[in-house]
User: Fold this.
Amino acid sequence: MPTLANYLLASGILFAIGLGGVMLRRSIIIIFMGLEIMLNAANLSLVAFSRYGLVDGHQIFDAQVLVFFIITVAAAEVAVGLAIIVSLYRARQTTHVEDIDTLKF
Amino acid sequence: MQLSTIAWITLVIPLIAAALILLVTRANKPLAAGLAILSVLIAFIGSWFIFWHGVNADYLGFDWINLGKTFSIPFSLLIDPLSRTMFVVVTTVALLVFIYSIGYMRDEEGYSRYFAGLALFLFSMLGIVLANNLVMMYIFWELVGVSSYILIGHFYTKDSAADAAKQAFIVNRVGDFGFLLGILLFWISTGTFLISPLNSSAGLFVEHPGLLALACVLIFCGTVGKSSQFPLHVWLPNSMEGPTPVSSLLHAATMVAAGVFLLARIFPILSTSPQACEIVAWIGAISATGAGFIAIQQDDIKRILAYSTISQLGYMVAAAGLAVSAALPMFHLFTHAFFKCLLFLTAGSVIVGMHHEQNIWKMGGLMKKMPFTFLAYCCGMLALSGCPFFSGHYSKDLIMACSWEHHRAIFWVLVIGAALTPFYMTRQALVVFFGKPRSEHSEKAHESPWVMVVPMLLLAVPAVCAGYPVVKNFFFKDIGSLAEPEIPPYVDQVFLAAFLLGILGAFAIYRNVAKDPLRIPFFAQRFYLDDLYDWIVRVIQGGFARICSFVDRWFIDGILVRGSATLVWSIGFALRFLQLGNIQAYAFFFGAGVIGLIYLILNVR
Assistant:
């Protein structure tokens, strides 16, 4: 039986992987994937806290229901994000962040 | 028609004429002149009608500003003996000057503009005469200033005319500022702007004679500016740059007379303040004699007359300062209006005959060539000099007799002035009309057209007889007493001696001379006062302006305005180096910021 610490560790590792992807990679698609990984890391820790945190000795499932909502909203967000990336590619023929610097002075 | 309607029509019709001339009939010269003369003719008839009826009334037009009892400024006309008399003087003189102008301005530029200016001038002056409160009077007072600016600067392409117009306006503003303060001071202490309650408010000042004197002197500042008294007299001689009929109107019945009229208007309250009267009388006496000294060394025919006007206005102001009766200055104003107007019209006639030469030392021998002008000139000149049986004699001697009774020092100053007047007038007459022609123009001089001669001859009649007791009683019996004071007989002989001394002195010096035998630079340079004012304006006011300009340019503009802009710009310049254009760098800053915030929340209490 894994403990809360195991779950949080897994969540932290996932978050770090996501953050590393966002910080270090140059392709917007990869950055976007990193963002999603970070989101899911947060979801994981939320569910874990919910599973192990007892209120008056009873389990409360509010957070686990909330996670479903988050996943739904994240799906919608991914749809929007990908659409932006596609139209950006159409405009610039690139998805590399170094090439998108028009706002720099 | 009701009298109030007539009064309002009389006031407004010159304004309507001015507007019509400027807006509609500008191109048509005879129509413009006709409209102006028609308007002044209507005003002339209306004023005599009102004078004949002899009503005393206060015709309310409308409440201009009404903020309760303490601050209410009506726009209404006050008809009383004083304004009735002034009313007919203004319109009568104006009528003759308007007609004369047809001839004088015949070949000049801006004919319609000129007549519109004259009509506006008449409107402003009538407003001063009829105003029933000081604020309304002040408004028309300024309108007179504006219209004098327009008319003096009529030949605005000439630098000297433009400068003279500017100077007249600005110097008047100096005096008007005091006038405004005086109005406000009177309002603060009595709570009214209306002339009649103000004049009966002497009781309010029993405890504060100093306040009353201050308020009166401040009002008097307006007179000093408008009536061209020392030390603000410099604009009047320079205003001779305007067309001669304008000078005539300006010096006789409008503008400069307004200042004396103002003194007569507030006379009941002014006469209760001995300190203010003392100042008024001395300013008047100094102007009367000082201007006389300057006049004996001037060479321009109109400037001599201008200084004589200052001198005569000095007599009127001094008369007001004697605190005898409001009729005393008004009587001299009345006679002066006619003979001074006449003198300017004859001077204009001479100038036209001389093809616009104004230096008297280029004239000479004009008596035979311009007989009517000479005749009219003699009437005006003798009246001005105070020759017995001419109008000026009656009014001026009455003032001096009163000054003998009330203020002996003023009397002697005025007697000196009275000796100077015949001196410089005889000098002018001898040089202009007698002797040999001194230039080509004076050999070819010719008499002026009848539109100029007829008004002159018409004016010569009142110039001679405006001072006779019949006329005096007719116009002045309601204004105040003009009784002869008790004076010893030798005082009368002093007057006569002063007159004869002036005439004979001038004969002795100026008979058959080719150029001026007297050279007194101090008088010829007008006591160096004009130079002093020039210096003040150039050095003191100019220096102050340069300091202001420096502060404005370097402190206000440099540090405050451009400094703050530069500060914002440089902060922006520094901050824009943070804009790397790298999305991951932004994410890094964002993350660093979040971590920093968390650190702050956890560790800083």
About this structure: Residues 78 and 104 of chain A are 27 Å apart (CA to CA). The mean pLDDT of chain A is 89. Strands of chain A lie at 54-55, 58-59.
